[in-house]
Structure formats: structure tokens, C-alpha cells
């Protein structure tokens, strides 16, 4: 009875402000670090950025780290560094982020989209996809690791190597969700340290590679493809201004010190959602996280999703649909085709929802959100 009364107490006393889907707070140490950058006139890319690159290489076990102004810029630069020809094919999962297909279209590349697993939003490692790779010889395979789910995709990686394709791992949502799978076969790995990531600099991203030649090309792409301002008549590769600043590097460096604590807190929030909502028949969880995998965002498949979002908004809670699958994007803008029906991706589009989470979510706010979700489905069952 005590639990029930506490639930009703919480529902009668909603928060004074909106419980956002994600919050990132920077502590005083982070503020002081940025302040020192301004005082020292270290406001562009400099020593702090290079020190962060060295630290990330050691932390993640890669030879080279190249920081960029965003994960999106890192991916675009990765494609530029491969010096692909127009209309060459890139295979990607339907649940990849929109920045990927944007980069393909900017470079006039053709996207080939395949479905994801039934219980995890990662590429479906099937014989059908592997046969397509062998027969069509794409130049790049993009393997995206969504929300901490690690995409081993061994068959796809093996098929890619047989046809000489590059493999890029998009790990924008997986920094901190690492295990022995970190050393899977790939040429370039892309990460984000944007505002909604576990390790956040507010804005930023980075690429990693063990290939010296690709690392050199990646470094050139972030400075317009030239080795120095005085060498503009000797442009070596396409590029754009996509440098990370020392101020953002300082924020990321402070966050890295708390990575394991932030991973643990975020994972505990997801586990609490799963435990408390397991009795609600209208809510379905993704597959359990495997050893070494850690979730980032509390995402589920639900019935009456749009009604639930409106209800939670009325309760001062921000919940959102999951981002749209790529096959719904505008074909007048993007050149893409799909391999077979996109059943699982379409299901995520119809029923996927994201609830408030992140390491800075207060315990009392989490309890309130869960209580409101339960109340919504309880009231619908009575109707």
C-alpha cells in the first residue's frame, strides 16, 4: 500500500518544469576549464585538442584519433578520405542516422538500405544481404551501433572484405558500450561527443583508424584539404572547416574522467525502466543488452504511442518518437534503394518511443515518469 500511495502522491505533485528527454550538465571543473581556454586565448584547435586525441587513442585502443566539429562532420570527412567516385554504392542499415545519408547525397553516392533485427535496431546480418554484397560490390559498408547495441555483423564484414569494400563503424551512440567487440574488423570508426551523448563536449565528434594513410587524409579534410594556409595552391584532397575547438576539447576531457560513472548511471536507469514496465503488456523492450553492452537511451516499443506522448506532455514529461527510418526520406533529395521489405524498421517507426534518461536524470523524476506511464495504460485498460 505504501508504494501505491507514493505513486499517487507523485502524480498529484508534478515537477515544476519539464522533465526533458535528455539533460547534460557541466560541473564547475568543466566551467573552469573553458574559462582557462578563453584566458589563455586557446579558443580554436590547438594543444588541448591534440591532447584529447592522444587520450582517446589510448582509451579506445586505436592508433590515430582525429577530432572534428561534430560526428556528422567526422563521417563526411571519412567518406572524403576514401576518395570515392560519384554513384558508388554504400550499404547501410535503415536505422542509421540521417547525417549518413545526407553525406552520401552531398558526395553523390548511392545508398543501399537493409532492414534491422527484430529485437535490436542494428543491421540484420543475413545471407540475403551478404549475397547482395558479393553480387553488387559496394565500395563502403556502414555498420551502425545504435543505443549501445553492438553490431557484430560477422557475415557482412566477411563479405565486404571479399569484394574489397571499406568498412566504417558508426559508434556515435556507443561510446562507453565497449567490450571485446571493439576490435572488430573496420577501417574507420566514427564517434559523437554532441550534447545528447554520454561523453559530451556540447558539440563535437572524432574519427579513429589504424591506417596511417587514411589518418593523414582525415586530418587534411578538416582544414579544407590543404596542409597550411600558405599552401592553398596545393590542395591535396576535398575538405571543409570542421575543426574541434580547444574549448570543446576541454569539456570532453573533463567528461572522460566520469565516463564509467555516467555509463553505470545511465544503464541503471534503463534497467529500472525495464523492470518497472515489464508488467505493462502494451510495452515491449528490445533484446537484453549482452555482456559489455550498455544502453544510453530508454527506448521501447509501445501501443497507443502518440496518445502516450500527448499524455506525458500534459504531465510535464518529454517523450518522443524514435527518429524516422531512412527509407521514408525524400527520394528527390536522396538516391537510395532498399534490399527487400523493411518490416522491422517500419515497426520501429510505428511504435518506437524514447523516454527521459541520461546520467543527470534525477531519481525522483524517473519515479514520476514511470508512475505516469503506468497510470496511462492503467486508465486505458479500464476504458
Task: Please specify the SSE layout and strand pairing.
Elements: H1 2-12, H2 28-39, H3 47-60, E1 64-68, H4 71-81, E2 89-93, H5 98-106, E3 110-114, H6 127-136, E4 140-144, H7 154-162, E5 166-170, E6 188-192, E7 205-209, H8 212-221, H9 246-256, H10 259-277, E8 283-284, E9 299-302, H11 305-314, E10 320-321, E11 336-338, H12 343-351, E12 352-354, H13 363-382
Parallel strand pairs: 2-3, 2-4, 3-11, 4-5, 5-6
Antiparallel strand pairs: 1-7, 6-7, 8-9, 9-12, 10-12
Helix pairs in contact: 1-13, 2-9, 3-9, 4-5, 4-8, 6-7, 10-13
What does this structure look like?
The strands form two sheets. The chain has an eight-stranded mixed beta sheet with strand order 1-7-6-5-4-2-3-11. It has a four-stranded antiparallel beta sheet with strand order 8-9-12-10. The longest helix is centred in the C-terminal third of the chain and has 20 residues. Helix 5 links the parallel strand 2 and strand 3. The N terminus is likely disordered. The radius of gyration is 22 Å and the shape is globular. With 383 residues, it is an alpha/beta fold. The chain is built from 13 helices and twelve strands. Helices cover 40% and strands 13% of the residues. It folds into two domains: 150 residues, Aspartate Aminotransferase, domain 1, CATH 3.90.1150; 229 residues, Type I PLP-dependent aspartate aminotransferase-like (Major domain) (Aspartate Aminotransferase, domain 2, 3-Layer(aba) Sandwich).
